[in-house]
Design a protein that fits this description.
two-stranded antiparallel sheet, alpha+beta
């Protein structure tokens, strides 16, 4: 696993830390255990995780804060862009036929 390139960490006025993933629009209030996983991602053996740590890693995977090593984020963004652009059911296609 690796850390997403699209994570942004914000500190609110009350010192609450917020993690935002620009790819998924994932937004979460986070604590030290979140940062511990981000900072030690290369050392995590997912298959042997249990309890709260496994649950947190699963949530981080779901929000794309961490991703599988073979996942290409840029390729995924390009795919989503072109899929939306050339999808026959999109508003862009409807407008073409009306004009």
């Amino acid at each position: 696993m690796k850390v997403s390139k699209y994570n942004r960490i914000l500190t609110m006025q009350d010192e609450t830390k917020i993690a935002f993933n620009a790819m998924t629009c994932g937004l979460a209030a986070v604590d030290d255990s979140f940062f511990d996983i981000l900072n030690h991602i290369s050392e995590i053996d997912y298959e042997n995780l249990t309890g709260e740590k496994k649950e947190l890693v699963d949530m981080m995977l779901e929000g794309n804060y961490i991703i599988n090593d073979d996942f290409d984020e840029l390729k995924s963004i390009k795919f989503r862009h072109f899929n939306g652009k050339y999808n026959g059911g999109s508003l862009g296609e409807s407008v073409k036929y009306i004009v």
